[in-house]
Amino acid sequence: MGYKGALYKLKGLYKFGDITSKIRGKVFINKRGQIRVGKNLSIVGHPWAVQITSTKGANLVIGDHVYINAGVGIAANKEIVIGDNVKIGPRTSIFDSNYHRMDSTDKGELCKKITIGNNVWIGADCTILPGVTIGDNSVIAAKSTVNKDIPNNVLVGGSPAKLIRELIIEDGWVRD
């Protein structure tokens, strides 16, 4: 089944942005909550499948001109907002829930909103944890774990991710 067949089967499940969206390879959508997608979404589901989940009562918002690479897993249990012109590297995980408590004294929230700003580049094999905001124009280096908010216009890396340097971003510049 080609691209047109896949889009037709998915059309009734959620708003998929405009017709210029590109989906290649295996993409699994588990939609019990809301999924909203902007225009020009590109997903590459090979050689590893991409899995996108929105559980009951959750919201997943994906902006315009977003690129999702192979093996990415996105699971919204509360809310995940991905801005415009975002690039997500292969085998990256974005989960807004811890799913399980650490021990019997853990009374904190299991789910916390994730916000990824505009023009963000997330490298390969990254993990974005619940409750973080990644600022506009920032870059997350490969194999990083983001467990705290990241400001605008910075390069961070490591596990946990730490500031490496500030980035010079001219107004209106969009990452290729």
From TrEMBL:
SUPFAM superfamilies: Trimeric LpxA-like enzymes. It comes from the Bacteria. InterPro entries: Hexapep (IPR001451), Hexapeptide_acetyltransf (IPR051159), Trimer_LpxA-like_sf (IPR011004). Keywords: Transferase. PANTHER family: ACETYLTRANSFERASE C18B11.09C-RELATED, SIALIC ACID SYNTHASE-RELATED. Belongs to the transferase hexapeptide repeat family. This is DapH/DapD/GlmU-related protein. It comes from Cohnella silvisoli.
